[in-house]
Amino acid sequence: MQKVLVIGDSCNDVFVYGKSIRLSPDAPVPVFNPVETIENGGMGLNVQANVMSFGVECDILDQVERIKKTRYVDRKTNHTFLRVDTGEDNILRVKSNQLEQIKNYSAIIISDYNKGFLHEEDIKYVCDNHPLVFLDTKKHIGDFCKNATFIKINEVEYNVSFAELNKDHYKNNLIVTLGGSGCKFKEKIYPVDSVQVKDMSGAGDTFIASLVVDYLKTLDIQKAIKFANLCATAVVQKRGVAIVNNSDIIYR
């Protein structure tokens, strides 16, 4: 049976939905009236939830101290008024002996939001000691991750990370997501359908999770990219940080 391990930063995503129908009399700001609060696991926990939604067993190695992201959102338009993050000052680094468990898993997903849980040396250890590692990192790409099987970053991160690096070294394992334009792998563009986007929160988590799920099934990265595109397209049409499964996907 295939089993996946997610390693990385996690958070609690809190969405406070409400309405605003007037401005404050003492300052030129909207008065926000909360109506409903929805809370779920985000970042690494969202990756794990998306993997499990496809019936694949998945564990997580993350920090004990959870970051909390609270978004205040207009219920009607889904417009975010404000996001408040707490807990980032208390992140402890992963213990080296905890990483030894990677040998027990079919694939490793590193979900590194660069909050302090994983250092470059930790990522290097995982990439050097497991044959199938999918890396999603906010760190600048460097030699510490050159042995990752596949690296997924967005276009902005790509332009920053590779400003002073030899891009040729990563040409066979780098997947660059392009938002509404799909993604790029080995200079080939994998497009996505144009859809009405409700929320981009967590879309990258869904992409990397579904990429791994399909790759474990097909061992074909091009097929896995197409599947991940379908899943990411489906999840951005949902509110908040959401998950997808096979029932959400329109296959072509």
Question: How would you explain this protein's 3D organization?
Answer:
The chain contains five helices and twelve strands. α1 (44-52) crosses α4 (203-218). The protein has helices spanning 44-52, 120-129, 155-161, 203-218, 221-235; strands at residues 3-8, 10-19, 33-43, 57-61, 67-74, 80-86, 107-112, 133-137, 150-154, 174-177, 183-185, 188-190. The mean pLDDT is 91. It is globular. The protein is an alpha/beta fold and 252 residues long.
Fold blueprint:
Blueprint: E1 3-8, E2 10-19, E3 33-43, H1 44-52, E4 57-61, E5 67-74, E6 80-86, E7 107-112, H2 120-129, E8 133-137, E9 150-154, H3 155-161, E10 174-177, E11 183-185, E12 188-190, H4 203-218, H5 221-235
Parallel strand pairs: 1-4, 1-7, 2-5, 7-8, 8-9, 9-10
Antiparallel strand pairs: 2-3, 5-6, 10-11, 11-12
Short description:
The chain is of the alpha/beta class. It has helices spanning 44-52, 120-129, 155-161, 203-218, 221-235; strands at 3-8, 10-19, 33-43, 57-61, 67-74, 80-86, 107-112, 133-137, 150-154, 174-177, 183-185, 188-190. A hairpin with a 5-residue loop joins strand 5 and strand 6.
